[in-house]
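Try it yourself: sequence plus PBG, in.
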Amino acid sequence: MDFSQMLERPRRLRGNPLIRSMVRETRISKSSLIYPMFVRDGQNILEPIPSLDGQMRCSVDRLGDVLEPVLESGVRNVMLFGIPDHKDEAGSQAYAEDGVVQRALRFAKERYPELYLITDVCMCEYTSHGHCGILSGCEVDNDKTLPLIAKTALSHVQAGADMVAPSDMMDGRILAIRQELDKNGYVSTPIMSYAVKYSSAFYGPFRDAAGSAPSFGDRKGYQMDFHNRKEALKEAALDVKEGADILMVKPAMSYLDIVRDVADNFNLPVAAYSVSGEYAMIKAAARAGLIDEAAVVCEAAAGVFRAGAGILLTYYAKELARWMDEGRIG
Ligand code: PBG
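Structure, out:
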Protein backbone atom coordinates (compact mmCIF):
# COMPACT_ATOMS: atom_id res chain seq x y z
CA MET A 1 0.00 0.00 0.00
CA ASP A 2 1.14 3.52 -0.75
CA PHE A 3 0.32 6.13 1.85
CA SER A 4 2.35 8.96 0.32
CA GLN A 5 -0.78 10.79 -0.82
CA MET A 6 -2.29 10.84 2.67
CA LEU A 7 -1.48 14.44 3.58
CA GLU A 8 -4.11 14.88 6.24
CA ARG A 9 -3.60 13.02 9.47
CA PRO A 10 -5.95 14.31 12.19
CA ARG A 11 -4.04 12.23 14.74
CA ARG A 12 -1.15 14.74 14.54
CA LEU A 13 -3.14 17.05 16.76
CA ARG A 14 -3.96 14.33 19.28
CA GLY A 15 -0.43 13.25 20.07
CA ASN A 16 -0.18 14.39 23.68
CA PRO A 17 -2.12 16.34 26.30
CA LEU A 18 -0.39 19.63 25.47
CA ILE A 19 -1.31 19.67 21.81
CA ARG A 20 -4.81 18.38 22.56
CA SER A 21 -5.27 21.21 24.99
CA MET A 22 -3.86 23.76 22.51
CA VAL A 23 -6.36 22.93 19.79
CA ARG A 24 -9.36 22.42 22.03
CA GLU A 25 -12.49 24.01 20.55
CA THR A 26 -14.55 24.21 23.73
CA ARG A 27 -13.15 25.82 26.84
CA ILE A 28 -14.90 25.80 30.13
CA SER A 29 -14.26 27.86 33.19
CA LYS A 30 -15.63 28.06 36.69
CA SER A 31 -17.10 31.46 35.97
CA SER A 32 -19.64 29.85 33.65
CA LEU A 33 -21.04 27.50 36.29
CA ILE A 34 -24.10 28.08 38.47
CA TYR A 35 -24.80 25.91 41.49
CA PRO A 36 -28.51 25.32 42.28
CA MET A 37 -29.29 24.87 45.98
CA PHE A 38 -32.20 24.45 48.37
CA VAL A 39 -32.91 26.52 51.45
CA ARG A 40 -35.80 25.71 53.75
CA ASP A 41 -37.67 27.14 56.70
CA GLY A 42 -36.70 26.00 60.19
CA GLN A 43 -33.59 26.17 62.32
CA ASN A 44 -30.37 24.29 62.47
CA ILE A 45 -31.30 22.03 59.57
CA LEU A 46 -28.74 20.50 57.26
CA GLU A 47 -30.31 17.40 55.75
CA PRO A 48 -29.37 15.19 52.83
CA ILE A 49 -31.89 15.11 49.98
CA PRO A 50 -32.78 11.46 49.34
CA SER A 51 -33.64 11.96 45.65
CA LEU A 52 -30.46 13.98 45.00
CA ASP A 53 -27.66 11.94 46.50
CA GLY A 54 -24.93 14.35 47.65
CA GLN A 55 -27.14 17.47 47.79
CA MET A 56 -28.38 19.10 51.00
CA ARG A 57 -31.32 21.16 52.15
CA CYS A 58 -30.40 23.72 54.77
CA SER A 59 -32.08 26.33 56.92
CA VAL A 60 -30.92 29.93 56.64
CA ASP A 61 -28.74 29.73 59.78
CA ARG A 62 -26.85 26.78 58.23
CA LEU A 63 -26.44 28.35 54.81
CA GLY A 64 -22.72 28.65 55.41
CA ASP A 65 -22.43 24.86 55.54
CA VAL A 66 -23.55 24.75 51.92
CA LEU A 67 -22.02 27.99 50.64
CA GLU A 68 -18.52 27.63 52.02
CA PRO A 69 -17.66 24.49 50.04
CA VAL A 70 -19.03 26.26 46.95
CA LEU A 71 -16.72 29.20 47.55
CA GLU A 72 -13.78 26.89 48.24
CA SER A 73 -14.35 25.17 44.90
CA GLY A 74 -14.05 28.50 43.11
CA VAL A 75 -17.67 28.61 41.96
CA ARG A 76 -19.16 32.07 42.52
CA ASN A 77 -22.70 31.80 41.16
CA VAL A 78 -25.56 30.16 43.01
CA MET A 79 -29.24 29.74 42.25
CA LEU A 80 -31.51 29.65 45.29
CA PHE A 81 -34.67 27.59 45.60
CA GLY A 82 -36.90 28.08 48.63
CA ILE A 83 -38.86 25.46 50.53
CA PRO A 84 -41.37 27.07 52.88
CA ASP A 85 -43.09 25.37 55.84
CA HIS A 86 -46.34 27.07 54.99
CA LYS A 87 -48.01 26.68 51.59
CA ASP A 88 -51.33 28.17 50.51
CA GLU A 89 -53.48 28.67 47.40
CA ALA A 90 -51.87 32.01 46.61
CA GLY A 91 -48.28 30.96 47.29
CA SER A 92 -47.97 33.89 49.68
CA GLN A 93 -44.58 32.84 51.07
CA ALA A 94 -43.09 33.31 47.59
CA TYR A 95 -43.31 37.10 47.95
CA ALA A 96 -43.32 37.46 51.74
CA GLU A 97 -40.72 39.91 53.01
CA ASP A 98 -39.60 37.36 55.59
CA GLY A 99 -39.96 34.40 53.21
CA VAL A 100 -37.23 31.79 53.25
CA VAL A 101 -35.49 32.97 50.07
CA GLN A 102 -35.70 36.61 51.11
CA ARG A 103 -34.06 35.80 54.48
CA ALA A 104 -31.45 33.62 52.80
CA LEU A 105 -30.61 36.48 50.43
CA ARG A 106 -30.12 39.00 53.21
CA PHE A 107 -27.93 36.55 55.11
CA ALA A 108 -25.83 35.55 52.11
CA LYS A 109 -25.45 39.07 50.76
CA GLU A 110 -23.99 40.26 54.04
CA ARG A 111 -21.87 37.19 54.86
CA TYR A 112 -20.65 36.24 51.39
CA PRO A 113 -20.51 39.39 49.28
CA GLU A 114 -18.24 37.64 46.78
CA LEU A 115 -21.14 35.42 45.64
CA TYR A 116 -23.47 36.23 42.74
CA LEU A 117 -26.96 35.43 43.98
CA ILE A 118 -29.58 34.28 41.49
CA THR A 119 -33.08 33.25 42.49
CA ASP A 120 -35.55 30.92 40.87
CA VAL A 121 -38.84 32.81 40.59
CA CYS A 122 -41.84 30.49 40.60
CA MET A 123 -44.86 29.62 42.70
CA CYS A 124 -44.85 25.81 42.68
CA GLU A 125 -42.81 25.41 45.85
CA TYR A 126 -45.17 27.81 47.64
CA THR A 127 -48.65 26.80 46.50
CA SER A 128 -50.67 24.15 48.34
CA HIS A 129 -51.62 22.60 44.99
CA GLY A 130 -48.04 22.60 43.65
CA HIS A 131 -48.81 24.40 40.39
CA CYS A 132 -46.64 27.26 39.14
CA GLY A 133 -49.39 29.88 39.40
CA ILE A 134 -52.79 30.85 40.73
CA LEU A 135 -55.69 28.55 39.90
CA SER A 136 -59.03 29.45 38.40
CA GLY A 137 -60.88 26.18 38.78
CA CYS A 138 -58.41 23.56 37.63
CA GLU A 139 -56.55 25.89 35.26
CA VAL A 140 -53.44 27.90 36.06
CA ASP A 141 -54.63 31.44 35.40
CA ASN A 142 -51.91 33.18 33.40
CA ASP A 143 -52.88 36.80 33.92
CA LYS A 144 -53.77 36.44 37.59
CA THR A 145 -50.35 34.86 38.16
CA LEU A 146 -48.27 37.54 36.44
CA PRO A 147 -48.55 40.23 39.16
CA LEU A 148 -47.51 37.69 41.82
CA ILE A 149 -44.54 36.51 39.79
CA ALA A 150 -43.48 40.13 39.36
CA LYS A 151 -43.98 40.79 43.06
CA THR A 152 -41.89 37.74 43.95
CA ALA A 153 -39.06 38.88 41.68
CA LEU A 154 -39.14 42.37 43.19
CA SER A 155 -39.05 41.02 46.73
CA HIS A 156 -36.01 38.91 45.84
CA VAL A 157 -34.18 41.88 44.40
CA GLN A 158 -35.07 44.05 47.37
CA ALA A 159 -33.65 41.33 49.63
CA GLY A 160 -30.35 41.24 47.69
CA ALA A 161 -30.73 39.04 44.61
CA ASP A 162 -28.24 40.00 41.89
CA MET A 163 -30.35 38.37 39.17
CA VAL A 164 -33.79 36.76 38.94
CA ALA A 165 -34.67 33.66 36.94
CA PRO A 166 -38.39 33.10 36.32
CA SER A 167 -39.24 29.44 35.69
CA ASP A 168 -43.04 29.49 35.78
CA MET A 169 -43.62 29.60 32.00
CA MET A 170 -46.55 32.04 32.14
CA ASP A 171 -46.91 34.11 28.96
CA GLY A 172 -45.71 37.68 29.41
CA ARG A 173 -43.79 37.13 32.63
CA ILE A 174 -40.54 38.67 31.50
CA LEU A 175 -42.27 41.92 30.61
CA ALA A 176 -44.24 41.87 33.87
CA ILE A 177 -41.04 41.42 35.89
CA ARG A 178 -39.04 43.95 33.87
CA GLN A 179 -41.73 46.61 34.37
CA GLU A 180 -42.01 45.91 38.10
CA LEU A 181 -38.24 46.03 38.62
CA ASP A 182 -37.84 49.19 36.53
CA LYS A 183 -40.71 50.94 38.28
CA ASN A 184 -38.91 50.36 41.56
CA GLY A 185 -35.57 51.57 40.31
CA TYR A 186 -33.92 48.21 39.63
CA VAL A 187 -33.21 48.92 35.99
CA SER A 188 -29.79 47.26 36.22
CA THR A 189 -30.87 43.90 37.60
CA PRO A 190 -30.71 41.24 34.87
CA ILE A 191 -33.35 38.62 34.15
CA MET A 192 -32.28 35.13 33.16
CA SER A 193 -35.38 33.65 31.56
CA TYR A 194 -36.14 29.97 31.66
CA ALA A 195 -37.20 30.83 28.13
CA VAL A 196 -37.33 27.33 26.72
CA LYS A 197 -38.54 25.06 29.46
CA TYR A 198 -40.00 21.72 28.53
CA SER A 199 -42.50 19.73 30.51
CA SER A 200 -40.07 17.02 31.55
CA ALA A 201 -40.00 13.85 33.60
CA PHE A 202 -36.37 14.73 34.33
CA TYR A 203 -37.58 17.16 37.03
CA GLY A 204 -38.80 14.26 39.19
CA PRO A 205 -35.99 14.25 41.80
CA PHE A 206 -36.23 18.05 42.14
CA ARG A 207 -39.93 17.85 42.94
CA ASP A 208 -39.16 15.36 45.70
CA ALA A 209 -36.42 17.64 46.97
CA ALA A 210 -38.62 20.74 46.96
CA GLY A 211 -41.96 19.08 47.70
CA SER A 212 -43.34 20.82 44.61
CA ALA A 213 -45.05 18.06 42.62
CA PRO A 214 -48.50 19.18 41.44
CA SER A 215 -51.25 17.63 43.58
CA PHE A 216 -53.37 17.04 40.47
CA GLY A 217 -52.73 17.04 36.74
CA ASP A 218 -49.36 18.02 35.30
CA ARG A 219 -47.54 21.05 33.93
CA LYS A 220 -48.23 20.40 30.25
CA GLY A 221 -50.64 23.34 30.09
CA TYR A 222 -47.79 25.80 30.59
CA GLN A 223 -44.45 24.04 30.09
CA MET A 224 -43.47 23.07 26.55
CA ASP A 225 -44.23 19.86 24.68
CA PHE A 226 -41.00 17.94 24.19
CA HIS A 227 -41.84 17.12 20.57
CA ASN A 228 -41.41 20.76 19.54
CA ARG A 229 -38.38 22.53 18.15
CA LYS A 230 -39.65 25.62 16.30
CA GLU A 231 -41.68 26.57 19.32
CA ALA A 232 -38.42 27.00 21.23
CA LEU A 233 -37.44 29.82 18.90
CA LYS A 234 -40.85 31.42 19.34
CA GLU A 235 -40.56 31.31 23.15
CA ALA A 236 -37.03 32.67 23.05
CA ALA A 237 -37.98 35.48 20.64
CA LEU A 238 -40.84 36.58 22.88
CA ASP A 239 -38.58 36.73 25.91
CA VAL A 240 -35.96 38.73 24.02
CA LYS A 241 -38.65 41.22 23.04
CA GLU A 242 -39.88 41.41 26.62
CA GLY A 243 -36.43 42.28 27.93
CA ALA A 244 -34.72 39.03 28.94
CA ASP A 245 -30.94 39.31 29.39
CA ILE A 246 -30.03 35.62 29.32
CA LEU A 247 -31.95 32.76 27.67
CA MET A 248 -32.05 29.40 29.35
CA VAL A 249 -32.85 26.01 27.86
CA LYS A 250 -34.01 23.29 30.23
CA PRO A 251 -33.38 20.36 30.57
CA ALA A 252 -29.95 20.14 28.94
CA MET A 253 -28.97 16.61 28.01
CA SER A 254 -31.95 15.59 25.87
CA TYR A 255 -32.28 19.09 24.40
CA LEU A 256 -28.86 19.89 22.97
CA ASP A 257 -30.39 20.51 19.52
CA ILE A 258 -32.47 23.25 21.14
CA VAL A 259 -29.41 24.74 22.85
CA ARG A 260 -27.74 24.94 19.45
CA ASP A 261 -30.82 26.51 17.82
CA VAL A 262 -31.13 29.18 20.49
CA ALA A 263 -27.39 29.92 20.42
CA ASP A 264 -27.44 30.28 16.62
CA ASN A 265 -30.52 32.47 16.45
CA PHE A 266 -30.06 35.01 19.24
CA ASN A 267 -27.36 37.33 20.42
CA LEU A 268 -28.02 36.82 24.12
CA PRO A 269 -25.95 34.57 26.37
CA VAL A 270 -27.43 31.07 26.49
CA ALA A 271 -27.65 29.00 29.65
CA ALA A 272 -28.53 25.32 29.92
CA TYR A 273 -29.84 23.63 33.05
CA SER A 274 -28.64 20.09 33.62
CA VAL A 275 -31.60 19.14 35.77
CA SER A 276 -32.15 16.90 38.75
CA GLY A 277 -32.98 13.78 36.72
CA GLU A 278 -29.77 14.09 34.73
CA TYR A 279 -27.80 14.38 37.96
CA ALA A 280 -29.65 11.51 39.64
CA MET A 281 -29.14 9.15 36.69
CA ILE A 282 -25.41 9.73 36.58
CA LYS A 283 -25.15 9.39 40.37
CA ALA A 284 -27.09 6.14 40.38
CA ALA A 285 -25.05 4.65 37.54
CA ALA A 286 -21.82 5.70 39.24
CA ARG A 287 -22.93 4.28 42.60
CA ALA A 288 -23.75 1.01 40.87
CA GLY A 289 -20.19 0.94 39.51
CA LEU A 290 -21.40 1.13 35.92
CA ILE A 291 -19.68 4.34 34.84
CA ASP A 292 -16.77 6.58 35.82
CA GLU A 293 -18.60 9.51 37.43
CA ALA A 294 -15.98 12.22 36.83
CA ALA A 295 -15.37 11.20 33.22
CA VAL A 296 -19.07 11.07 32.39
CA VAL A 297 -19.90 14.38 34.08
CA CYS A 298 -17.02 16.13 32.29
CA GLU A 299 -18.06 14.70 28.95
CA ALA A 300 -21.71 15.66 29.46
CA ALA A 301 -20.76 19.19 30.55
CA ALA A 302 -18.49 19.67 27.54
CA GLY A 303 -21.38 18.53 25.35
CA VAL A 304 -23.58 21.32 26.68
CA PHE A 305 -20.96 23.99 25.97
CA ARG A 306 -20.15 22.47 22.58
CA ALA A 307 -23.85 22.71 21.73
CA GLY A 308 -23.59 26.46 22.20
CA ALA A 309 -24.34 27.22 25.83
CA GLY A 310 -22.09 29.69 27.62
CA ILE A 311 -23.49 28.99 31.06
CA LEU A 312 -24.25 25.70 32.78
CA LEU A 313 -26.47 25.19 35.80
CA THR A 314 -25.52 21.93 37.45
CA TYR A 315 -25.66 20.17 40.80
CA TYR A 316 -22.15 18.99 39.89
CA ALA A 317 -20.74 22.55 39.82
CA LYS A 318 -18.34 22.06 42.76
CA GLU A 319 -17.06 18.74 41.45
CA LEU A 320 -16.66 20.14 37.93
CA ALA A 321 -14.60 22.98 39.38
CA ARG A 322 -12.36 20.44 41.09
CA TRP A 323 -12.05 18.35 37.94
CA MET A 324 -11.05 21.52 36.07
CA ASP A 325 -8.29 22.06 38.63
CA GLU A 326 -7.20 18.47 38.02
CA GLY A 327 -7.13 19.04 34.26
CA ARG A 328 -9.87 16.53 33.48
CA ILE A 329 -11.90 19.19 31.70
CA GLY A 330 -11.33 22.77 30.60
C1 PBG B 1 -39.77 25.46 39.35
C2 PBG B 1 -38.60 24.72 38.87
C3 PBG B 1 -38.46 23.35 38.61
C4 PBG B 1 -37.12 23.15 38.29
C5 PBG B 1 -36.50 24.38 38.32
N1 PBG B 1 -37.43 25.33 38.66
C6 PBG B 1 -39.42 22.25 38.72
C7 PBG B 1 -40.55 22.15 37.78
O1 PBG B 1 -40.73 22.93 36.86
O2 PBG B 1 -41.36 21.22 38.02
C8 PBG B 1 -36.50 21.81 37.99
C9 PBG B 1 -35.04 21.74 38.30
C10 PBG B 1 -34.49 20.36 38.31
O3 PBG B 1 -35.17 19.35 37.99
O4 PBG B 1 -33.30 20.23 38.64
N2 PBG B 1 -40.82 25.56 38.46
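One thing you can check immediately is this: The longest strand covers residues 33-40.
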